[in-house]
Amino acid sequence: MARDERRHTTYIAGMADLFAGIDPPPAPPADPAPDAPLADRLRPRTLADVVGQTHLTGPDGAIGRMVAAGRLSSMILWGPPGTGKTTTARLLADAVGLRFVAISAVFSGVADLKKAFAEARDHAQLGKRTLLFVDEIHRFNRAQQDGFLPYVEDGTVTLVGATTENPSFELNAALLSRAQVLILHRLDRDALELLLTRAEAVMERPLPVTDAARDALVASADGDGRFLLNQAETLFSVDLPEPLDPAGLSAFLQRRVAVYDKDREGHYNLISALHKSIRGSDPQAALYYLARMLTAGEDPLFLLRRLVRAAVEDIGLADPQALTQCIAARDSYDFLGSPEGELAIAQACVYLATAPKSNAVYKAQKAAWKTARETGSLMPPDNILNAPTKLMKQIGYGQGYEYDHDAEGGFSGANYWPDALGPQRFYEPTERGFEKRIAERLAWWDERRRR
Question: Are 144 and 103 in contact (CB under 8 A)?
């Protein structure tokens, strides 16, 4: 046999050994069967089809930029259930031509990980990189998480982990330092409506509910697209003599759903009414709208977030305890749950509505942020610059600084403003509540400066 023929035969044999034991690449996904679950039939085929996450998948998003560059970094997808974490990972692999392998931390152990890494290394030798998707990655213990590190570092796998838990608390710092954390948002009303529209197109008929019941169905999904499609599939599976109203929908699904007025005010109008009732110091109306939303199935944590916002936007330093009341209500609800914890939410709501009102800090923040954007390069005056070295002291850093605690009354009256800007006034306290005392203190300091 000629030398070239022997080399060719040896090469073929070597390649056969290399391919032995390696699974063939998966075939492209086939169209779902007509009787497949509705969620499967509506599963996105491209990243552009993913709803509610354009901050990541759009041209300016982190995922959009990586796909455009044709290169993925390891990442952790953090978001609530039903927001498209698994689908996004699968489409990412397709978009950049990676082999997709999925495992679940709930059902997998060390042996499964070793097998996945070994297969990924074999395919890498053939020029085919692997995207390893790990669902519920936070369920792996610290030692198991450490096991990913060498394979992520040497490029054996591009790791995409999915979690519903805060990665800061649940994942190793070493793993987090090698992966980018991307936050998927809870699906908003528009995204959920788009899912229902797509479902109606696939089923070739409208959802058998009234407009008000449709609003209630969307609100009850609480941002979970998969749950919404499962509920819609249940509705499509039966023949109803007439469309269901909100009460009929609640009885049919055996699930508490949001009840909206006949004029379809909806979720956002009710939260606006709650916030403005608090701002308008009407505790009775504030309690009413709070009750409307809680009894309709609204997420209590959503309401607590809005109460915190009202505390800092509409009350501020007129009553500094307002924010403390809201944080205490959140902690109480976390501790007690529903329905007992809802009493703490009601207490915070009444406290805010009956507290003195001021938006002085809110206005001051807006003005200060605007000035900072316009003058962000100005140096502070020399007297308050840090001077840790001899050279910095020689060129005047820190020269003339007055230590206020050594001054009469604990107030030196020194200048703290950039020379090119001069003193500004952003915060103007009101004469209401605790801010009246703050105003008196500021006036006293102003008089000392004038002297």
Answer: no
Least confident window among 6-15, 37-46, 113-122, 404-413 = 6-15
Neighbours of 411 (CB within 10 A): 14
Report the alpha-carbon distance of residue 215 to residue 198 in Å, rounded: 16
- Interacting residues of 190 by C-beta distance below 8 A, sequence separation 6+: 52
Q: What is the distance between the alpha carbons of residues 331 and 273, in angstroms, rounded to a whole number? A: 25
DSSP for 318-377 reads: GSTHHHHHHHHHHHHHHHH-TTTTHHHHHHHHHHHHHS----HHHHHHHHHHHHHHHSTT
Residue 9 scores a pLDDT above 70: no
Mean pLDDT of 439-449: 90
Where on the phi/psi map is residue 13: left (φ > 0), alpha (ψ -120 to 50), or beta? alpha
DSSP one-letter code for 27: P
pLDDT digits (tens, 9 = 90+) for 274-306: 999 999 999 999 999 999 888 877 889 999 999
Cβ neighbours around 48 below 10 Å, total: 11
Among candidates 408, 405, 449, which has minimal Cα distance to 425?
449
364 vs 369: CA distance, rounded Å: 8
**What strand order describes the sheet that includes 180-183?**
99-104, 130-135, 157-163, 75-78, 180-183
Cα distance between residue 205 and residue 47, in whole Å: 26
Output the six-digit token pair for 289.
């709208």
Q: Is the previous residue joined to 356 through a cis bond, with omega within 30 degrees of 0? A: no
DSSP alpha helices (H): ranges in 48-109?
54-57, 62-69, 85-96
What's this model's pTM, rounded to 2 decimal places?
Answer: 0.53
Distance CA 34, CA 46 (A): 20
Alpha carbon distances (Å) from 94 to 3, 27, 67, 98: 42, 12, 10, 6
First to last CA, the chain: 107
Secondary structure class of 28 (helix, strand, coil): coil
Q: How confident is the model at residue 32 (pLDDT cuts 50, 70, 90)?
A: low
Q: Is the pLDDT of residue 14 over 50?
A: no
- DSSP-derived letter for residue 104 is E
Compute the distance between CA of residue 358 and CA of residue 432 in angstroms, rounded to an integer: 7
Residues 6 or more apart from 47 whose CB is under 8 A from it? 57, 63, 64, 67, 88, 91, 92, 95
Supply the DSSP symbol for 59.
T
